[in-house]
Amino acid sequence: MRLPEAEIQVDGAKAWILQGNANQLVFFEFDSGTQVPKHSHSYDQWGIVIEGEMELVIDGKPRICPKGAEYVIPSGAEHFAKFLHKTRVMDFFSEKNRYKLKPIEQSLKQGQNV
Hints:
Layout: E1 13-19, E2 24-30, E3 35-39, E4 45-51, E5 53-58, E6 61-66, E7 70-73, E8 79-83, E9 87-93, H1 104-110
Antiparallel strand pairs: 1-2, 2-9, 3-8, 4-7, 4-9, 5-6, 5-8
């Protein structure tokens, strides 16, 4: 499947966007040991672990999410994640512009297959 690559500011992470009119579905790949820093946003996020395992902390409550685990991050909840193995997740954002597209020339150089 070919999707446009997302511009993402986390070392050890790649992402591809399936863009909707009012939301985004984003496919992520994280290297083992990658950490997404604590943050929050003003819209809900739903996700599922496709492969691998992550530690997800939502509003100070940690949980381990193995392959097949689903999670919901409510609007305004502080959260962060650490990826315990190479991990792929799919996240649905109820916000149209959570991630921007990577400039096309960078995507073409690096390949954009998911």
